[in-house]
Amino acid sequence: MHAAPSLRRVAVLGATGSIGASALDVIARHPDRFRATVLAAGSQVQALLALCRTHQPDHAVIADAALYPALRDGLQQAGLATQAHAGAQALDALAASDACDTVIAAIVGAAGLSSTLAAAAAGKRILLANKESLVLAGELLMRTAQRAGAEILPIDSEHSAIFQCLRSRDASLDGAGVRRILLTASGGPFRGRTRAELAQVTPAQAVAHPKWSMGPKISVDSATLMNKGLEVIEAHHLFGIPGQRIEVLVHPQSLVHSLVEFVDGSTLAQMGLPDMRTTLAVGLAWPQRVEAGVAGLDLLAQGRLDFEAPDTDAFPCLALAWQAMAAGGTAPAILNAANEVAVSAFLQQRVSFLAIPALVANALATLPAEPADTLAVLLDADARARRLTQTAIESA
Ligand code: NAD
Ligand code: MG
Description:
Mean pLDDT: 96
Oligomer: single chain
Strand order of the largest sheet: 4-3-2-1-5-6-7
Low-confidence stretches: none
Strand content: 5-15%
Number of strands: 11
Helix content: 40-55%
Bound molecules: nicotinamide-adenine-dinucleotide, magnesium ion
Order of helices and strands: EHEHEHEHEHEHEHEHHHEEEHHHHHH
Radius of gyration: 20 Å
Shape: globular
Number of helices: 16
């Protein structure tokens, strides 16, 4: 006889996004175990209202405060008891409140840092999809979580794979027994292209990822390989492994999600179809396993698994991320902020694809890395890198 699992009350921050949709799909499959009690979005108020009608949360938050009346009136018209909130402060307060015990941090970009930190300081179980918060303030976030007893479960297919592989050993000895981590990368939509061939690619081509369906920002990051660079920094903070022991391996089939090599020569990999619902189910139910709506892996049907080295000449963003991680301090915050501004300009067709690494390199070369002991220093570096990159775009 097993005791029934207690009901997990989940705040989904970034509910209207790609990860939000996958999370709510898994949650809705297990009404006895999970309930979405808080749903939050940036500015898509109609999409948020539609989710409220389906999931009936206790609270709904729209970050854009100007949309508060639309949210409040929409909830009332739908006859829902869901309370309406607006603004970043309300978001942080709810992430830290008794309204939830688990927070899915699935806001895109540095905009997700504040609520992630609030959830960490409140000791929540955090399902962390918002990798930018780790790149920007990794040490601070990990320290805050550790002090408050917050548990961080990665919602990134690679890091979930590493997390699962690492659990095969005595995890109380941090990092012990691990020789290296091999982070797999699909290579994105432009794998195999030369630098010259990348000059004319369009946003529509860049967001058409061959294996994963994701939001626009991370899709462009996958096309430049910046996503893999951010993930190396993410892995470094999550698992306390020095950067030199993290390697990147291109694996176009996206079935092996990452590997961990141990000192005894044993390598463990985690495999599965590329569907984030598996990753979210691991995080929601851990250490138990629950149905996620994802089929198993048919290796006979898949046929083969290929591996190759990343091309850092055609995709310099990966090297820039290594460089920022090695420089430390505020350098990863500068890298991340410049990248967010550059990707946004590329999506608006204001700069070319190759301008993305050029703008990030420019920010790293212009702004010196400083020690990053406080959140204020990191946010200042983030703001300066955004201004610098914006100016570089406007004066180009
Ligand atoms: P998305 O663009 O589909 O969704 C982003 C969500 O964030 C939306 O709900 C949006 O309303 C919300 N948002 C944006 N700005 C906000 C703000 N200022 N305040 C509050 N909410 C705001 O993005 P996504 O693909 O779901 O990615 C979300 C995060 O998860 C990113 O950090 C990404 O790197 C990470 N991630 C995504 C995937 C994936 O498969 N999509 C995989 C691994 C990691
Ligand atoms: Mg990933």
